[in-house]
Amino acid sequence: YLYRKKWGGTYFKCELYGDSNGPGTDFRKKWPRPIGRPDYFGPIKLEQYARERDNCQNCPGLERCPNQIPGYFPVLDEKLPALTNVPCSEKQAEMKRSELSARIKSQYIKPHILNSTFKQLIEEGDPERKPALLAAMKFCENFEAGKTYRGLYLYGPMGRGKSCLAGAMANRLAQRGVDVLMVYVPDFIREIKDAIKTNEVEEKVAAMREATVLILDDIGAEQLGTWTRDEILGPILQERMEARPTVYTSNLTLQQLESHLANVAKEKDKAIGALNAERIMERIEPFVDVVQVLGRNWRREGK
């Protein structure tokens, strides 16, 4: 390698008095006299520096990175002085994706929904959906943990992209450092009964109560019973109101949702059912901004 062949002498010469274009150039400007440790910044390290910087110039991708520490490359650390490894742009992007994934927890949500972004939705160019998109973006940009308590109720016909809009909200909030839990309500209600057998009910319910932002996807499409309505959904929303915002997506208006909540399976007393439904609506309606989602039917018409 150039540095070893050209300098090849003592460690100090390699570090500070090499070729004017070599890796020691910036160090000479700050330290006119040799300082440092050979094991930090000797000929072998300089050779590694040259080799790995060359690798980065011809990057084969993160999965095939030939550097000693995949995804990292050496830079001159002016504090020691020494060579130190820092993540490349590809590695930083991977770390960012992992960080975002850790902030977005989900139950029964399909991957394409979790991967949705506002950028994708904007590029789809649906003018009728634009007001809902702007409302969702505004919520995410203005959100403040502990201060924002009003969520959104996104409703509209099937196939208009309500779930993808909610997924994009989850991603944007995660980018801002906000923990989000997104739950597909029909599957959650179906499986919460099975959780009784494994004593997981309280764990699942606690996660929904405590999430900084909770997204309930497709509420109104589930088959509720009195127990899941009064002992599961009701307490979750009771805990969250005036403290943590909830975002809903639904095919139903708020009035239709109340009717759905009142007419659950095995309801013996319709009057009590209506009263309990009203109680739940009091935990939803005052704490959301209602947004209608219109536009193309993306399921039927495609992109």
Task: Write up what this structure looks like.
Helix content is 50%, strand content 14%. The radius of gyration is 28 Å and the shape is elongated. Helix 9 (130-142) packs parallel to helix 10 and helix 12 (201-210) packs parallel to helix 13. It has helices at 2-7, 11-16, 25-30, 38-41, 43-57, 89-103, 111-114, 118-124, 130-142, 162-175, 185-195, 201-210, 226-240, 254-262, 270-282, 298-301, and strands spanning 72-77, 82-87, 104-107, 151-155, 180-184, 213-217, 246-250, 288-292. It is built from 16 helices and eight strands. It has 303 residues and is an alpha/beta fold. The model is unreliable at 1-20 and 31-39 (pLDDT under 50). The strands form two sheets. It has a six-stranded parallel beta sheet, with helices on both faces. It has a two-stranded antiparallel sheet with strand order 1-2. It starts with a helix and ends with a helix. It folds into two domains: 2-87, no CATH class; 103-301, P-loop containing nucleotide triphosphate hydrolases (Rossmann fold), CATH 3.40.50.300. Strand 1 (72-77) and strand 2 form a beta hairpin. One of its GO terms (biological process) is DNA replication. Residues 122-263 form the IstB-like ATP-binding domain. This is Primosomal protein DnaI. One of its GO terms (molecular function) is ATP binding.
